[in-house]
Structure formats: structure tokens, C-alpha cells
Amino acid sequence: MGVAHTSAVNHFNCFYLSILMLLKLNDFALILIISTSVFNLVVRIWRLNIIALILQYLGIFIIIGSMWPIELAIIKLLVGWMVSTVLGITLFSLKSKNSAKERIDVPGQIFRGITGLLIVIFVNYLTPSIKAVLSANSMEANIFSGLILLGIGLFQMGLTSDLLYIIIGLLTFISGFEVLYAVVEMSTLLSGLLAGINLGLILVGSWLLSKVHEGEIV
Amino acid sequence: MSTPLIFLAIPLITAVLLFFLRFNKTLSVLLGSIVSLFLFILALTLPENLIITIGNFSIEIVDKVFILGRSLTIGSKQLAFVAFFFLIAFLWIFGSAWFKVNDWMITVAFLITPILVAALCVEPFLYAALLIELVVMLCIPLLVTDQNADNPGIHKFLIYNTLAMPLILFSGWMLSGIETAPITSPIISRVTFFLLLGIALWLTIFPFHSWLPMVSEKSHLWNVSLIVSLLPITILIILLTFLNQYAWLRTLPNLFNTLLLLGIMMIVIGGMYISIQNHLGRAFGYAVMIEIGFSILSIGLIPQIGTSTFSMLFFPRIMSYWLWAYSLTAYQQISNDLSFTNIKGMVFQFPFLCAGIIIGQLSLAGLPIFASFPIKHFIMLTTAQNSQIYGLWLVFGSAGIFIFTIRLLIKLFDSDNAENSLWHINERIQFIIPICIMIILLVIIGLFPHWFLNYWGKIGNLFAQFPIIP
Questions:
Q1: Which end of chain B has less neighbouring CB within 10 Å, N or C?
Q2: Which of A163, A181, A190 faces B150 most closely, judged by CB atoms?
Q3: What pTM does this model have?
Q4: Is any Cβ of chain B less than 8 angstroms from the Cβ of A187?
Q5: Residues B361 and B443 in one domain
Q6: Smallest Cα–Cα separation from A214: which of A88, A85, A47, A94?
Q7: CA B443/CA A8 separation, integer angstroms
Q8: What is this model's ipTM?
């Protein structure tokens, strides 16, 4: 009896600990997603942007991993890191152009920072009602992170005419959609096709970046 | 053997071959033209029961294949639009023989045509959004030239179409759960909003139209005309498929009236913009906007005139696009600048190119004796019967393209000195012959529309829930 009771308590503790860990992990992922996406919105230094993108995909993996089997969620991480690598390699090969363009634009950064903050506040208010619409049993953090990525991706595209940041905005927007869609449905085929879309987008984006670079040299 | 295998796998394999042949223009044009023409004729002539009988020997073709649990169906109802898509591919690939298009053009044309066919045949239907996004990404290399990679129009094209994809996917997911929902359910308004916003982004509906003139001004016009011939038609068919599939969506109060208004708005805005253009490429972009408006208007009129009118618009439109784009691209190769300042007195130097441009425009505008006239005249009459105000707006919007043509004619005949006013034929024969053939064809279609348009009206038979009015 005593042994069975101890086993049940241990089992409960393990379950409780894993839930606690998941919650903490989700919180960590949420912080990672918010900080990296806002960082990419505010800062215009491509090396740091690529690092932020890599960390952003780590956050997305953790968030999706809390809803999907890990072997399926890892696709998002692998694809995300591949996308970041391709973008990084392209920019590295075009570094002369990019280093010339990088500059500290304080008023612009303040404006974008405030915009990012407003998006976070707005999404915070919006999340409970979106959760009700999606009628999903997922944690609010998952929906919150998806909406943050959608919102910041959208603003990233709207606030710049620089192709690099348009591409980063598109990738962020699609990531947000992937997180939100993962909340409502788990589809292996859709996941695969979205991976293809991400890779296709970065190939087209990198090719366009190199074409713009060629045009500027000419 | 199955129809999806024939109409999807054969072109995709050909695209792979064309990729390796892309530096040999003659061979790739020849291969591309032959295969697309073969697929067009096959789709046109396949019997309804899909059984080919030669003497005692008969082959039954299956109309469905399953890939990863999803199905692709090309039955007898789908064959009309399959034929139409391969006709477009043939016309543009064959036409590219005399143009300096980029090496990717024929390969990409052979990739996007079957992918768009697949987008219209896939079940569940929401996968169409992903396939369209794939096509959009494949179109980017066609739009980029060495000078225009930083053209904001190309970026907007990519952004708007990518934004539409999640909206359509989400609405597809929501639709699957509310097939039996009551009309008063709040979910219905949400789905409708997502769906219409996604379609608006795809169809360049105002205010998402800005990329269209930017791209047609700066990119290679032949490639642009191929894209605007294929993509909007696919998306319009997707919109009608959604309406056909969900009873609650097509019975929404005022839906068709809203579409009718939206169509008129597109025609009026496009007409206003085109009337003040000073660049032939930009004008082409706005003409595309007007044509999309006419298609949306014809969807709005479906309860009265059925789906045949909607689908009969496509064939004359494509022929007119072809003639206009062919003549413009031929001139773009000579001068590279399509602005009004550069075309003064052009008619005396290049009379056939000018005739192609002018007749292409007038045919699109719906001038009597040309191809678009019978259908556009019918649409205008029906709209005016609905409401005289709508009819007046429609006339006002349609006048835009005529005003532009008159301004263009003044410029074309405006020669600085008497020496330049002497008539010369400077075009090469390979430009003159196709232009003349197409002009004659546009006149024949305009005079005898029933010979040509009845077949293409069959595309409307896809939508069984709507009235079929011959």
C-alpha cells in the first residue's frame, strides 16, 4: 500500500514537474520570440538579424513542440535554420554592399521600437478573443506568440523598402501563421508543403538580393 | 493511365527537359510548343467518358489519382479549362520565339501551367493556396530583369500573394467546420472576411492593385502578360469553386450585389487610371485591372445570366492580351522605352506593330466587330437592366480605355517633320504575320462568336450549383 502510494506520488510529481517545465519552456520560448522579432524590427545590422532569426526559429520549435510530436516539430527548426543559413551565406557574399548600407538610425529605431511595443500590447489584448474564435485547447502563450510573429512580420514588411527586411518580414509572418495553424490542426503534408514554401521563399529572396546587388554595381 | 498523369506529369517532365535545353532557344521553343499544343488538342478532343477507341482497341483513362492521401481529379468537366491553360502556354511559348526573353521563361511556363491546373483539381481544396504561392515564387525570375530587381512592384507582388495564402488556408480550415452552420453564426462573417480578403489580395482588387502597373512598366512585357493571363483566371475559378461548394456562402444576403459593385469599382478605377497614362506598359497593367473587374462583375451577375458568360470572357481576353503584348514587346525590343515621348510618329515607321497595339486595346475595350464585343455588350446590357446608375458607371469606366487609345493615336500620328511622315514598313516578317493572323482571328471571333465561345463556356459547367444559361 505504502509503496503504491509513494509510486503514485512520484508519478504525480513527475507529471507536475513536466507540466511546470513545459510552462517554463513555453514562457522562455515566448520571451525568445518576442525579443528576437522586435529586435529584427528595430535593429538593421544583418549579422545580428540572422542570429536573431536563428533564435526565433528555436523559440518557434519549442512552442510548436509543446503541441506536436517532437519529430514533427523539429522540421520547423531544421527548415528555419536552413533558411537563416542560406540568407546568411547570401548576405556574407554580398557583404561589401551591406556593410556600406548599415547605419545607426536612432529616430527610426525609436519609432520601430515603439511600434513593436504597441504590437505586443495590442496582441496581448487580442489573444483571449482569438483563443475563443479558434476554440483551441492550447495554451494562450502559443496563440500569443503566433500573433506576435504575424503582427511584427506584417509591420516589418510595411515599414521598409529594403529587400532584406522585406524577406525577414515575410519569413516572420509565415512563421506566425505556422504557429497559429499548429494550434488548430496537425497536418504532416501541410507541414511539408509549408517547409517547401519557406525554402522556396528564401531561394527567391536570396536570388533577388543578389540581383539587386548586381544592379547597384552596374 | 490517368488524366492527372497526362496533364500534370508530362508537362512537369517536359519542364525538366526544358531546363537542360534552356540555352538552346530554338529547340526549347520547338519542344515547348509541340508538347503544349499536343496537350491542348488532347484536352480538347478527349471524349466525355474518357475512353479512347481505335478500331477494336480501347483505352480507358482514369480521372483521379491519390497522392499522400489527397486526390487530383481531371474529369470531363475539367478538360475545358485544362485545354484553355495549355492553349495559353502554347501561344506564349510560340510567341517567345522572336523575343529576347530570359532563359527561364519557357521552363517556368511549363512549370506554372500544370501547377495551376493542379491547384484547380486538388482535394481538399485548401491546398490550392499553397500551390498558388509556389507559382508566385516561380514567377519572380520572369519578372526580374538586370535593371529592375529592386522594383517595388515585384516586392509587392510577392508580399500580397504571400499574405493571401494564410488567409485562404485559415478560411479553408474554418469552412471545413461550418458546412452546416446557421447563416446567423458569427463564424460565417469571419470566414467570409478571411476568404474575400485573401481573394482580394490575389486578384489585385483595389487598393491591392499597385504592383500591377509597376511590374508591367518595368518588367519584360511578354512575361508579365503570361502571368496575368494565367494567374487571375485560376483565382477567379477558385473563387467560384468556393461559392459553388458552400451553400451558405452563395446564399449570403447581398453577396452577389457586393461582387457586382466591386466589379464596377474595379472597372471605373482602372478606366480612370488608364485614361491618364503616358506609358504603354503601365496602361497594359490597368487594362488587366479592368478585365479582372469585368470578371468579378460577371460573377455578380451569375444569378441572372449563369456561369457561361463568366467563362466566355476568357478566350477573347487572352487573344487580345496576346496581340497587345506581342506588338508591344516587339516594339520594346526595338526601343526599350514605351513612354509616350518615345512613340511620336511611330505609325509611319512600324504600321503593323501600331495596328496590333491599337486593335488589341480596342478588342479588350469591347469595340464592335472585335472578339470581346458580344460578351461585354451582353454584360453591360444586363448590368444596365439591373440598375441604370450601375450601367452609367460601367460606361464611364469602359470609356477610359477608349480615351487612352485616342490619346495614343494622336501621339502615333504626331510626326515632327514631313520626312518622318512617309510610310515605311520596318517590322520583320515574323512580327507582321502573327499580328495579321491574330487581327483576322479577333474579327472572326467578333463576327461569329458562337463558333468559338460556346466551347469555352463549358468551363462554367464546373459549377453545378449555379444556373447554366446558354
A1: C
A2: A163
A3: 0.90
A4: no
A5: yes
A6: A94
A7: 87
A8: 0.88
